[in-house]
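User: Run a structure prediction on this.
Assistant: Running it now.
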Amino acid sequence: MSQHHEVAASSPILRLLILWALNTLGLWVADYVFDGIRFDSVGALWVSGLLLGLVNAVVRPVLILFTLPLTVFTLGLFLLVINALMVLLVATLVSGFYVAGFATGLWVALFLSVFGWVTNLLLGRYTVSVRTN
């Protein structure tokens, strides 16, 4: 008789790997949805997914803090600009990842935000199923 348990991804390493995979999956899907982005290799895709997660964890909060008055004035819409800048920054830093311009970066950032929201909704905020005998 087997038991089924759901274990939250509380390990920082496991959480990082899940976020990395989800970022990479989102970028991969965005590559098929939008004509304005391109990856030259699978390696560039994986590095971009990792770097996007790091940039969103480190650089994005600093930019949000510095632009808080503008973000409040635009009722939060300026966050889309910040997200687009994060995508463009990663494209600048990763060889083999290309974004056609700011407008494409804006649409990709919006897509990644919705993609992340949907995957979080579907996955129940990073739960892992474990079967034991």
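Residues 3-132 form one domain.
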